[in-house]
Structure formats: C-alpha cells, structure tokens
C-alpha cells in the first residue's frame, strides 16, 4: 500500500492531523484541549453519519471504523484524506476554520455503489 | 445504416500543446490529405457496457450506434483509442468478464484495423486490472505513429486513483528517450490534474506525471471519466476530456451530486459522442472535431 496511513497536513483553513492507533495521536492530543470525538462508521456504500455538523474553530476528532471493506475518506476542501481499514480505528483531528457545507467522499473505488458514497461536513458559526 | 456526419466545428489547437484555440470549419479529410504524414485518429470513451437505467433507455444500442457512426466516416481513421470505462462496474468477477466480452464483440465490428484500449476504474479498480488484461492486454504502454509518440497511462488499476511510483518511473524512462520538442500525446482515463476532487475527478499522484511531462514542449492529454467535453491547460500542456457513450454527467460542481443527466426524449443521445483528432505532424498541430453518437431523427 503506497498511501501513508499516518498523514499530517496543515492548511490555512484548518488544522488536520490524521493518525492510526499509534502514539502519534496521543502526542497530538496532548497539545490540544479536550475535544469532541465523532464516531463514523463505513460500510458498502455509506458513511454513518453522512452529515456531520461542526462549529467553526471547534477542535474535533473524527474516529473512523470500517465495518466491511477498506474505504477512503477524503475531504477535498480541507486537503485531507485517510484510508479506513477494518479492524483498525483511524482518527482525523480537525479544527475547521471556515464555514460552509463541504463534501466528503470515498476515494478508494470500492464497488458498484462507490460513486454514491459521500457525505457532507457542515461548519457553522 | 449509412450516416454522413458533417463536422459541427473544429477546435483547432495551435501546437500540440494546445496554445491558442480557434474554431474553424473544415471538410472531412482535408487536414490529413494535405501532408503525407498527417493523419487522424478517433477518440472514444466511457461506453459503460452493461449499464441499465433511465439515463439511457437505449443502453443496449448506443455503443452499436457509435460503432456504426465511426464506420460511416468517409475516410477511416488510422486508429481508434478507447480511454476506459469500456464496461460499467460490477462486483461480480464473472459478470465483469461477460461485459468485457460483450463490449469486445461490439467493437470488433469497427472497420478500422487498429483499435487500442485502456481501462477505466469501472473496468479495473476492483481487481487491479486483472480481467481487463485478460481481454485487452497491458493497461499502460506506448506506441509511435507517423512521428507522434503516444503514451497510455493507467491511473485506475490502483483503486486509490494512483499511477504509482513504478509506473511513474516507467514514464520517466520513456520520456528520457524523447526529444524535448517531440510531439507527444498522452491518454489517461482520469484527469491528471485536480479537475474537481469533490467528485473524484482527479488523480492522486497526477501532478507527478504532469511534472515529468512539463519539460516537453508539445504535449497533449486526452482523457475520459467525466462524460463531457472539458478543455484545460496546466502550463503549456493541454488536457481534453471526451464525451461518453452511455450517459452525460453534469459540469464540474454544477449540481449537488454527480449523477447522470436525465435522458431527454426530445433530444435522444444528447451529450454523447466521440471525436476525431487530426494530427498535422509537420506543423505540430492537433485539431479536434466532435461528433454525435447518432443523427437527430
């Protein structure tokens, strides 16, 4: 697998940290205030929940769990993605710094319903 | 059924890189009749054989109509290139092969001897191109034709929309053998650039391929995937998306979701088609002519 599971990107719009189950996440959290954890499950071909509402500037952790096969989670407007692998919790730390409705989608072609596998991140004031 | 298509208009690209776009009307055959080495080829894409649904009530007949339309061209092209999504995806490996076989049987009726293929994600992403290779061979390759170097880049067999380091190294090695002013045409399925990542209209490591191509003066990329014409420059490199042959998709970001545009009974097959590309080798020019799948009745 060429794509790195642990990936960190900084953008002007948000601070995002993608981590697997290793110490990287704990190190990242130690520098951040206590934050809300939003659990998201994936299965053919949906995210649950598929609409996530956040407050601008609110630090959150998106915690993913794949219930069947490997999926992707990509949030293009924040320049971040991660694999979501069965049996392994994947976390993204996110501090959205802009309001609006942003599409997230599976970017690993996963089957006949792949093109419908998407959701919305709604960031409000 | 005999069909005579009149060219609806040419997109004339000054230089293979596509700098300077003008429209012109021409008669079929003029471009390649003028020079000994000039030629033209046909670009077809996104046949999605096996798709069934309201966006195309003639899903079983549209590809056949497209084949008939190409066969009716007054002068036959030197070759035809299909840029992927030959079939509509299925989770069933047996059904995938059945669809690939069905597609192959239909396009075997093309008069042109040389028909080349590459996969789209619907053909290849669920099995890393295994079934596609059984029917059509390698998913990435090069060929030369009358002075133009053609490179077929596979950005779908990895389901993450990656070209991958191995293929990028292959691309770099191939390009090293080319002169900096060589006319180069690249075929891909997905756009190499971030056209609209919110709809997965991108290649994760496409920028690496573009960076490899940038030192070359005359590069043009033809691709499919988005089921509509789209023309975009990344620096001096032109990228031209083709219409599909099953259902059109909306313009990037123009609708909340990427769903097929509805079939219009008043204008059947609207938004579907194929294109001719005339290569004027000496002047390093390409000209594009768009054709519908079927004439209006």
Radius of gyration of chain B, taken over Cα atoms and rounded to an integer in Å: 18 Å
**Morphology call of chain A:** globular
What strand order characterises the main sheet of chain A?
1-2-9-6-3-4
Helical segment count of chain A: 1
Overall shape of chain B: it is: globular
What multimeric state do the chains show?
heterodimer
Mean pLDDT of chain B: 89
Question: What is the third-level CATH name, the topology of chain B?
Answer: Purple Acid Phosphatase, chain A, domain 2
Greatest chain-chain interface? Answer: A-B, 17 and 22 residues
> Major sheet of chain A, described briefly?
6 strands, mixed
H/E series of chain B: EEHEHEHEHHEEHEHEEEEE
Q: Unreliable stretches of chain B, pLDDT < 50, 5 or more residues?
A: 1-12, 14-35
Number of domains of chain A: 1
Tell me the span between the first and last alpha carbons of chain B.
13 Å
Indicate the CATH topology of chain A. Immunoglobulin-like
Computed Rg of chain A? 14 Å
The CATH class of chain B is: Alpha Beta
Give a summary of the structure in a few sentences:
By secondary structure, chain A is mainly beta. Chain A is built from one helix and eleven strands; from the N terminus they run E-E-H-E-E-E-E-E-E-E-E-E.
Q: What would your notes on this structure say?
A:
The complex is a heterodimer of chains A (125) and B (297). With 125 residues, chain A is mainly beta. Chain A is 6% helix and 50% strand. Chain A contains 1 helix and 11 strands. The longest helix of chain A has 8 residues. Chain A starts with 6 loop residues before the first strand and ends with a strand. By secondary structure, chain B is an alpha/beta fold. Chain B has a single domain, classed as 4-Layer Sandwich (Purple Acid Phosphatase, chain A, domain 2), CATH 3.60.21.10. A 7-stranded mixed β-sheet of chain B has the order 2-1-13-12-3-4-5. A 6-stranded mixed β-sheet of chain B has the order 6-7-8-9-11-10, with no helix packed on it. Classes of the chains: A mainly beta (125), B alpha/beta (297). The interface between A and B is medium-sized, with 17 and 22 residues.
């Amino acid at each position: 697998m060429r794509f790195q599971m642990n990936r960190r990107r900084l953008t002007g719009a948000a601070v995002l940290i993608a981590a697997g189950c290793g110490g990287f996440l704990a190190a990242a959290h130690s520098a951040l205030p206590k934050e809300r954890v939003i659990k998201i499950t994936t299965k053919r071909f949906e995210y649950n929940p598929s609409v996530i509402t956040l407050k601008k500037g609110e630090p959150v952790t998106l915690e993913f769990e794949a219930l069947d096969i490997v999926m992707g989670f990509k949030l293009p407007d924040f320049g971040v993605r991660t694999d979501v692998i069965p049996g392994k919790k994947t976390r993204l730390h996110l501090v959205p710094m802009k309001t609006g409705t942003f599409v997230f989608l599976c970017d690993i072609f996963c089957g006949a319903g792949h093109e419908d596998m998407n959701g919305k991140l709604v960031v409000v004031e | 059924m005999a069909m005579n298509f009149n060219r609806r208009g040419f997109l004339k690209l000054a230089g293979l890189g596509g700098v300077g776009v003008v429209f012109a009307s021409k008669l079929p055959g003029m471009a390649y009749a003028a020079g000994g080495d000039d030629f033209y080829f046909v670009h077809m894409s996104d046949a999605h054989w096996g798709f069934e649904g309201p966006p195309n009530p003639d899903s079983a007949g549209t590809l056949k109509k497209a084949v008939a339309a190409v066969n009716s061209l007054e002068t036959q092209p030197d070759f035809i290139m299909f840029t992927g999504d030959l079939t509509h995806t299925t989770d069933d490996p047996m059904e995938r092969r059945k669809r690939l076989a069905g597609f192959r049987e239909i396009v075997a009726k093309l008069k042109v001897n040389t028909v080349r293929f590459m996969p789209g994600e619907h053909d290849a992403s669920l099995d890393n191109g295994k079934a596609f290779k059984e029917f059509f061979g390698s998913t990435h390759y090069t060929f030369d034709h009358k002075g133009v170097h053609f490179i077929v880049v596979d950005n779908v067999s990895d389901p993450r929309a990656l070209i991958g380091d191995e293929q990028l190294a292959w691309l770099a090695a191939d390009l090293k053998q080319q002169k900096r002013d060589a006319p180069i045409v690249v075929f891909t399925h997905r756009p190499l650039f971030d056209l609209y990542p919110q709809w997965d209209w991108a290649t994760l490591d496409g920028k690496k391929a573009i960076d490899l191509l940038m030192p070359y003066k005359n590069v043009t990329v033809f691709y499919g995937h988005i089921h509509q014409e789209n023309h975009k420059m990344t620096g001096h490199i032109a990228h031209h998306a083709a219409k599909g042959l099953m259902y059109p998709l909306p313009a990037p970001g123009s609708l909340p979701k990427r769903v097929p545009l509805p079939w219009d009974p008043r204008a059947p097959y609207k938004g579907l088609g194929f294109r001719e590309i005339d290569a004027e080798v000496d002047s390093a020019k390409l000209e594009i002519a768009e054709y519908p799948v079927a004439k209006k009745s």
